[in-house]
Amino acid sequence: MNKRTLLYSALVLVGVLISTASQVILKKRSSVKSDSIIKEYLNLPVIIAYAMFFGATLLSVAAYTVIPMTLGVILESTSYIFITAAGVIFFKEKVSIRKLGALCLMITGIIIFSL
After folding, report:
1. Alpha-helical runs (H) found in the chain
2. pTM of the model
3. Residue 50: what pLDDT?
4. Are the C-beta atoms of residues 48 and 25 closer than 8 Å to each other?
5. In angstroms, rounded to a whole number, what is the distance separating the alpha carbons of residues 85 and 104?
6. What is the per-residue pLDDT for 37?
7. Residue 23's pLDDT is what?
8. Least enclosed by CB within 10 Å: which of 9, 47, 66, 80?
C-alpha cells in the first residue's frame, strides 16, 4: 500500500469517527423535549450534527477517488465498532454477549474480506 492510499484510507477512518460523533450528538439531543417540531430539528446541536454527517460524506467521496471500493467498504464497516464503543462510553449502554459475538463476527468478516 503506497503513501497516497494510506493517507486516503485514514481520511475514510476520520470520516467514520466524525460520523460517530455526530450520531452521539443526535442521540443526546433526542432526549431533550422541544416546544415544537421545528425547534426539534432546527437547533444548533442538530444542525452541527448534520453538518458533520455532510462533512464525513465529503471525506468519503474524496477518499473513494483514490482508494479501491473494496478497501473503502472494509474501512467504513469499522463504524459498528466505533458506535458500540461510543454507546458504552457516552450512554453507559451494556454490551451483551450477543452484541459482543456479533462484533466479533463483523471483525472476523472484515479480516477475511481484506485478505
Report:
1. 3-30, 37-41, 44-63, 69-76, 79-91, 97-114
2. 0.86
3. 96
4. yes
5. 13
6. 80
7. 96
8. 47
Contact between residue 16 and residue 76 where contact means Cβ atoms under 8 Å apart:
yes
Cβ proximity of 12 and 72 under 8 Å: yes
Instruction: Give the span between the Cα atoms of 37 and 46, in whole angstroms.
Output: 13
Question: If you average pLDDT over residues 91-107, what whole number do you get?
Answer: 92
Rounded to 5°, the CA angle 87-93-96 comes to 110
Grid cell digits, residue 114: 481484506
Q: Burial code of 33-68, b = ≥16 C-beta within 10 A, e = fewer?
A: eeeeeeeeeeeeebeebeebbeebeebbeebbebbe
pLDDT reading at 1 higher than 80:
no
All 3 cell numbers of residue 86? Answer: 461510543
